[in-house]
Design brief:
The protein has about 55 residues and is mostly helical. Helices cover about 45% and strands about 0% of the residues. It contains two helices and no strands.
Length: about 55
């Protein structure tokens, strides 16, 4: 089932950057998440929770 997510805010983005984690891992995650925004994964969800296929 699809989950309804709120759009990220600048504050939440900066809060995540302040999380204690090795710099290499943090940079990998930033690059991976940026790539996911540019090249989104195909989804089987139609965008209407409760509909067939979601």
């Amino acid at each position: 089932m699809c989950s309804e997510e709120k759009p990220p805010t600048t504050g939440s983005y900066l809060e995540n950057l302040r999380a204690p984690m090795p710099l290499g891992r943090k940079l990998r995650l930033i690059a991976r998440n940026a790539a996911r925004r540019v090249f989104p994964k195909p989804t089987t969800c139609c965008g209407h929770p409760g509909e067939p296929g979601c």
